[in-house]
Structure formats: structure tokens, C-alpha cells
Amino acid sequence: MKNKIKDFILLFIGSVLVAVGTYFFLAPNKIAAGGISGAAIIINNLIPKLPIGGLMMSMEVVLFLLGIIIIGPFFGGKTIFCSFSISGLILIFEELFPKVQPINNDILVQLIFGVLICGVGMGIVFNQNASTGGTDIIAKIINKYFNISIGNSLLAADIIVTVAATSVFGLNVGIYSILGVIINCTLIDKVINTLNTYKQVAIISSEGEEIKRYIMDVLERSATIYYAKGAYNNNESEVITTILSRKQFQQLKQFIADIDDRAFITINEVNEVLGEGFTFS
Known about the structure:
By secondary structure, the chain is α+β, with helices and mostly antiparallel strands. It has two domains: 194 residues, no CATH class; 73 residues, Alpha-Beta Plaits. Helix content is 65%, strand content 10%. A four-stranded antiparallel beta sheet has the order 2-3-1-4. Helix 1 packs across helix 4. It starts with a helix and ends in an 11-residue tail after the last strand. Keywords: Cell membrane, Membrane, Transmembrane, Transmembrane helix.
């Protein structure tokens, strides 16, 4: 239950970032950087009476059903939560901050800020085995069946929207939209890789028993024990190996420093861990 609450908190944080980046940075400059939000910006420009948030909600239905059927109901449920959170937040922004204007005349700066904010938010959402809806669902399907990274899958799905943006808003804005899609897709892969980076730690210490208890009781992780013989003195030593998050590693490093400043520790970065105690999503 605690993990589920944490998941939905992260999903909401990601949704807030996507809504803020879209409404305050991309939409005022008519930058359709892919996705349903980009399509909504294009339609809103053609028919201003149709609100961006409402358009996004209405275009999600078919893709929701597609995601639920192909990827599964759990993915679909979390995606619905994210999508309606984003659309709802944008509708609220439209009521609280109507007719938002570009912050300044530098479209490139606003593009970068908008895409960075959206990209981080989308990376957080994808990392929770969900999507923000729209073309993200198509990207997730491509990722599942063709083993292409989420970022590259999204690039393939969003290129149609950027071409439409070029025809509606002109070549200048279209180029910015294409640049935004490329930055966004690259950033999403980077965020996902960063969030999934773990530390593989190997420890040789005279306080091995205390370290093992700390790993299991405090960090709530397991460990594997190997035995190695040193080449210098032929003494056999116990090698404790474990895989930890970056935060857990910092805790363990401080604990070892406090009890044995002569401990020998090697650390490797691991980009993905599957199996008991870790996710398969």
C-alpha cells in the first residue's frame, strides 16, 4: 500500500511538471513539441474557442482503450490518472491564468525550459510504468514490441505532430517544434536511465557481521557473500556484495566509515536491475 501511494505521488508530480511546461512555456509560443498536447495546441490555434485542456481530454479516449487492450489494465489505469491530471491542471490554469503570453521574445529559451520541464515530468511518469496518454501510449507500445527506447519510440510517434505544426504555424515555429521533440525524447531516456541507476557494492571489512546486519535490517536489502584470497598474504577474506539505490549507498558508506575506516570498498554503476526486490516493469 505504501509503495502504491508513493507511485501515485510520483505520477502526480510528473503530471504537474508536464502541465506547467506545456501551458506556461510551449502553448503561448505555439510550439507543438509532439504529443496530444502539441495536437491540442494546433487545433486551439485553428479554433480558439476549443480549450487546450478539453481537447486533450477528448483525444485521449481511443488511445486509452488501445493502451489497456495491448499493454494491460494496470498501465491503462495509471495512464488515465496521469492524463486526466494533466488535462485537469491545464483547465485550471486556463481559468486562473487566462490568455497567457510568452514570457519574452526569445522562443528558443522558452522552448528549452518548456521541454526540459515536460521531459523530466514524462521521464518520471514512464519510469512508473505509465504514460501521460496520447502518443506516449503509442511510444510505450513500440517500446514493448520492438525493444526501442521510450525516447526513440516517442520521437517516431511525435514526428507527425511536428510536421502538422510546420504547416499550421510556419517553418520557423515548425523547426522549433522539431527541435523540441528531439530534446524532449533525448531527455526522457536520460531521466529514465538516471532513475534506474543503482550502485553495485563489494565490501571487505573486519566488521562484516555488523555491515551485513545493517544492509538487511536498516536498508532492507539482501547481500551475497563470496570468499577471496589476497595475493599479498594469502589470507582469505569475506566479500559482501549488494545492490543499492544511490541514497542507500550513501547511508551504507557513512555507516562503514563510522565503524571501520580501513574497509575496502569497490563500487560499480548498474543501469537496470530485475528480479527479487526490484521491478520487472
